[in-house]
Design a protein that fits this description.
The protein is of the alpha/beta class and 296 residues long. Helices cover 38% and strands 17% of the residues. The strands form two sheets. The chain has a six-stranded mixed sheet.
């Protein structure tokens, strides 16, 4: 398997929006690291891929849905670095732009149905797949777990190295969308109590974000509900906010994660929870490829 020491550059940019009310905001643009392997997904994968390399695997196998940014990044990395990829997908065959890319990148796909996918956390789920693909290394859904969190820890140094160009000596906290909580946990681990991390949960409570995060770290963060009533649920207020914000600052957003997280930040500032002068780093977690077909 190929070299995984590729650590792309994500610019830290100031964001000026009229509703910030004195809060200073800088966005870490993980959406800009690469045309294909975009967002936080690459950082979640680095440690998993290093482990796969250590055990001599010829490729990896993982799980996701028909719009999965995780599988998209994994398949693109497989193409670029020359290793095999297999994707186990939720539901029945769909022809989304993401799925078309997975196939173009050479990922072998298996559709598990909905019941079959729900069984992914049950004991014995991986056994038949290990037998079928003995040379592939299994990566958990979304690139989660301790390995995924460790990989995301580098983002803290990444941001700190760019503070001077903003004229900041320091910052007060992080703000980002939480889908599984892995990236959030990675930031918390790397911060080691120096700065708090706010996670705007883009999924409902029953998706297990709180449990995932508490299994990886002990304190140093706060979770807020930004799901707007469900996973992948969009509403006119959210879509209008995204449209207006993109026009105001030129940063592209998507409705599943970054759009929800930024709207939750606006609500928090309007409720008086963040004082003027607070300096926040907002993580743009990428995922823009998932907008195709979804927003249509």
């Amino acid at each position: 398997m190929g070299p995984f020491d590729w650590l792309p550059y994500a610019p830290l940019e100031p964001l000026a929006l009229d509703w910030l009310n004195g809060v200073e905001l800088a966005v870490l643009r993980l959406d800009r690291i690469d045309p294909l392997i975009s967002g936080n997904k690459w950082f979640k994968l680095t440690e998993h891929l290093a482990q796969a390399q250590q055990v001599g695997a010829s490729g990896v196998i993982s799980l996701g849905g028909a719009y999965s940014n995780h599988l998209h990044a994994l398949a693109a990395a497989g193409t670029r670095f020359g290793f095999a990829t297999v994707g186990l997908l939720r539901g029945h065959p769909q022809d989304t732009p993401t799925v078309q890319d997975l196939q173009a990148f050479g990922m072998q796909l298996h559709w598990l149905g909905y019941g079959g996918y729900r069984a992914r956390n049950e004991p014995g789920f991986w056994e038949p797949w290990r037998e079928r693909y003995p040379h592939l290394y299994p990566i958990p859904e979304g690139g989660g777990g301790v390995a995924g969190a460790i990989g995301c820890g580098v983002l803290v140094e990444h941001a700190r190295a760019q503070l001077s160009k903003l004229g900041w000596a320091d910052y007060d906290a992080w703000w980002l969308a939480a889908g599984t909580g892995t990236t959030l946990a990675g930031l918390v681990r790397a911060e080691a109590g120096a700065h708090p991390v706010y996670g705007a949960m883009a999924v409902p409570q029953d998706h297990g974000v709180a449990q995932n995060v508490s299994a990886l770290v002990d304190g140093g963060y706060e979770l807020l509900d930004a799901s707007r009533g469900g996973f992948a649920k969009v509403d006119p207020v959210l879509l209008d906010f995204i449209e207006v914000t993109q026009q105001a600052c030129g940063v592209p957003l998507e409705p599943l994660y970054t759009g929800k997280a930024l709207l939750a930040l606006k609500g928090s500032i309007e409720a008086g929870h963040l004082a003027p002068g607070t300096r926040l780093i907002f993580v743009h977690t990428g995922g823009l490829q998932g907008r195709r077909g979804f927003t249509a």
